[in-house]
């Protein structure tokens, strides 16, 4: 399984905002961006000339890092979005939001998207009671996501369950923490997607290629 291997804290600092890549740590004063609110590197504090292209590129990089996917995967999602009906940028975010790893994280069944991907790849997740080990699986409206019965006592699962009370579950999802399962009620609308990105700038960037 391919993954982004850079330091998670440096990725947030590079985008100058929290992308919540390290779970609970991001909500504490240990978060690197709290005491190093500038991009990493020797020339971090130098003023950068931010062109239109640079701003568009940063939005794309931010989206990739937020969802934890690589360039080739992201480009494929963009191509799918172009072929579908609707506003391309909004459709792109909907495709990313309904990835299985993001759905598990949004449901609160994992503390981070990275942890969600680990649970999936190790065979701890089921869709409609059938094991699925592909993090990019697109969860569809009406499908149920659950922790496998044999995996309910895993430490990451117990930690996520313990932290569930502090979460705000998106309205497009329904979760039963006692049963460690949830359901996708519908495809999220743009105002329900919390990704801190300007998707129109991403569309403008790809339209130039």
In brief:
With 209 residues, the protein is α+β, with helices and mostly antiparallel strands. It has helices at 8-15, 32-35, 52-67, 71-83, 88-97, 100-107, 113-121, 155-162, 199-207; strands spanning 125-127, 130-131, 144-147, 173-176, 181-184. The chain has a domain at 99-186: RNA-binding S4 domain (Structural Genomics Hypothetical 15.5 Kd Protein In mrcA-pckA Intergenic Region, Chain A, Roll).
The parts where pLDDT drops under 50 for at least 5 residues are none
Number of strands: 5
The secondary structure category is: alpha+beta
End-to-end gap? 28 Å
* Largest sheet entry: 5 strands, antiparallel
CATH class value of the domain at 99-186: Alpha Beta
CATH topology of the domain at 99-186: Structural Genomics Hypothetical 15.5 Kd Protein In mrcA-pckA Intergenic Region, Chain A
Q: Count the helices. How many?
A: 9
- Helical amount: 40-55%
CATH architecture of the domain at 99-186: Roll
Account of the 3D structure:
- With 209 residues, the chain is of the alpha+beta class.
- The protein has a domain of 88 residues: RNA-binding S4 domain (Structural Genomics Hypothetical 15.5 Kd Protein In mrcA-pckA Intergenic Region, Chain A).
- Helices cover 41% and strands 8% of the residues.
- The chain is built from nine helices and five strands; from the N terminus they run H-H-H-H-H-H-H-E-E-E-H-E-E-H.
- It has a five-stranded antiparallel sheet, with helices on one face.
- A hairpin with a 4-residue loop joins strand 4 and strand 5.
- It is globular.
- The model has no long low-confidence stretch (mean pLDDT 86).
